[in-house]
Amino acid sequence: MAIATAQPVERENYLNKHYGVGSWLLTTDHKRIALLYLISLTFFFFIGGFFALLIRLELLTPAGDLVQADTYNKLFTQHGMVMIFFFLIPSIPATLGNFLVPMQIGAKDLAFPRINLLSWYLYIIGGILMLHCMLTGGVDTGWTFYVPFSTAYTNTKIIEAGLAAFVAGFSSILTGLNFIVTIHRMRAPGMTWSRLPLFIWAHYATSIIQILGTPVIAITIVLVAVERFLHLGIFDPKLGGDPLLFQHLFWFYSHPAVYIMILPSMGVVTEIIACFSRKRVFGYHFVAMSSIAIAVLGFLVWAHHMFVAGISLYAGLIFSFLTYFVAVPSAIKVFNWTATLYKGSISYDAPMLYAFGFIGLFTMGGLTGLFLACLGINVHVTDTYFVVAHFHYIMVGGALMGYLGGMHFWWPKISGKLYPESWARLAALIVFIGFHLTFFPQFILGYLGMPRRYYAYPQEFQILNVLSTAGATVLGVGYLLPMVYFLWSMRYGKPAPDNPWNAAGLEWKTASPPPTFNFDEEPVVTWEAYNYEQLDEHEQEVPVAG
Amino acid sequence: MFDNFPLWPQRASTSAGGVDALYIFLVIVSAMMIALIFTALIYFAARYRKRRGVRAEQIEGSTPLELTWSIIPLCVFMVIFLWGAVVYFKGRTPPRDATEVYVVAKQWMWKLEHAEGQREINELHVPVGRDVKLIMTSQDVIHSFYVPVFRMKQDVLPGRYTMAWFRATKPGTYHLFCAEYCGTQHSGMIGSIVVMEPAQYEAWMSGTPSGPLSVAGEKMFAELGCSTCHRMDNTGRGPNLQGVFGKPVTLADGRTVMADENYVRDCILDPGAKRVKGFQPIMPTFQGLVSEDQVNALVAYVKSLAKVQPGTKTAAAAPQTSPAEIANASHKAGAKTSSKGSQVE
Predict the structure, then answer these.
(1) How many domains does chain A have?
(2) How many Å lie between the alpha carbon of A122 and the closest alpha carbon of chain B?
(3) What does pTM read for this prediction?
(4) What is the ipTM of this complex?
(5) Which of A118, A496, A497, B345 has the fewest CB atoms within 10 Å of its CB?
(6) Which is nearest to B298 in space by CA: B266, B344, B251?
(7) Do B179 and A451 count as a contact with CB atoms less than 8 A apart?
(8) Among B26, B57, B187, beta carbon nearest to A374
(9) In this structure, are residues A489 and A415 in contact, taking their beta carbons and an 8 Å threshold?
(10) Could you give all domains of chain B from N- to C-terminal order, each with its CATH number?
């Protein structure tokens, strides 16, 4: 890491300009809102993680002995809901995206700063509803809310949980809307579309999905409520409805939602790889367009979640076929990242370790996606632990690895402090190893036939479950560590220079932490993204700026 | 060693081998992809690590390379897709003349009824080497009938039939799991499939009191008054049901549908929806009046009429059943469906 000397005087920045609770809760500064999100997201992450811990402990033994069956069902439901709606979907866009989208395009703020604040309040209202729901009885339908179980058979707090997701959904829509308008309208002079960092392209694609997909889940939740309260036959066959209609609507959002979680992570990883191999990204346009392709194709594959649900054989055929097309842009990304390393000048700071970890886990998650997209295999492995392992590889292995990588990469910019590098490398390693230990055994469990959402299971599945639980404790340590040393660094960390990585991107051309309006004067862009050649020349002429 | 640490479940159906072969192919393809990507990553990471005085070489990209690594994977994907589709179609198209078993799922048990009339709960006895078709419905929420050793899974929905089939190849007792989350005791909704040698199976069958499901259905057909309109001499107010099953039917709204299990079921529970052309909408619904088991019996009866030419008087129900077994039907099938041997000629 290029360590620079400390800045002598603390400059005015977005953190120290105003003090007091009010200055945070009423802020319209995208950077402060990003931090509000960061704190609340972290809170929900640890709640979801706590549920995961209890789930893994229950599964240590074949018999259901730690908690009641109903409690277990609530645990996995709430683990899923909290992690998906209150952590993964907002994770990168609402924190790093919020912080960086305006900075990377050279803007003072997002296009609608007050709507940005509103979206955080909506998230918090949704989050409070979810917390209230969990504390006063909880919900036990699985995060998938399948009907008619959810509309007619469960007595748990389905409406409140649905409302929580509904409200949080609007937060997601507003964030997406804000990003799209900002990226279109607020780019600095000279910041053309093909000079945009690929992080921006990834967020642009994500925003498209948020805007087009989220309303569908909102409608679906309303329909569930209407059926539950008014007994209008929409989904329940006893009332003349169709339960498969629900699954179509649900997955029409929830499949693209997976890309809401993973695309921003891909954007982060692209930035990190370019920086730590000191190279422009191989095939810039292909990487940018693959994000858009994923966003568009992602809407055409939802029924691959329903191959055994009762859809026709021909529908299965079409959705399997289309699913293989959405795998291509993901493959393009992986190959381009690899090619970016070629003839680079590579260093291995913690963000880069996370990026490598991302590629490792995402590749395995993606390849097992090919198994699931394959009709002949899907019948056997769907609704088993194979699926559980697959989506954790993508959403935890991929999305979360990217999130942590990004947090390390931009932490000096966000906090103005340097995190302890060797601890961070250790944490990256622990997460990577813990992750495989936890989830790899689940692929085998799934192929052996252990169904998901089982509270008790036959004896023969125990060894692999014990392995998985053991891995989860390692993983837990890996996730706790960064929180500890990030907090530590806020007080004791060395002050960060403006550009500790000598990275490209406008966000590095301003102070760390940045002033409230990001740039002292509006930047004019005359270079392409990833101009590492120029930067490295510059570095040789002027020994490390201070 | 793999006995203690298996990587796949036993193979006990004709489909299982094909699924495993495809799975192993995919594992090999994935392993090759991983080897390729990880080797490149690790090699580049080591070879091009930062050195003093060595600068990165800027490379814009390469369209031929991009096309290569888009098209080659796509071709591989298409092979996987096609192979998967073939396995899927084979595994999900029930052969003709399969033995039929009606499955009714409910929170949290499996009720199974053989076409010959044997009823079982959470246990299904089947012989080796015979095609078995499952005609499944649920009394409440969605369940899923999953037998890992058969590599077979099908969701079981309320309000309609879904089908699955298998041909067992290896005697033994195997897990039957519910694979779709269905509430409190979801993980307790486990049954077993008992695969037997044909001789043992016959012994089991004869030791179990039974009577053909279609006979129970015929009895009910009379008791519910269906036979007053659906007359066999074409003079009733409803269509004659002989020879109907398995053939296309023209509906009053002009559509043509196949008279399959789901069609018969819909006609019993929602008669107005798919009314046959040329008949008045006078049939009352039987929704709520008949249980899932009774619907199954009625469907089995209508199916048994499929081979009868319209106009003949006899219903050649379940030809393989001996009179003794039919006489036994009343024990197992209960009072509602008690039948007398004399009703079948």
Answers:
(1) 1
(2) 31
(3) 0.89
(4) 0.91
(5) B345
(6) B266
(7) yes
(8) B26
(9) yes
(10) 99-206 (2.60.40.420), 213-340 (1.10.760.10)
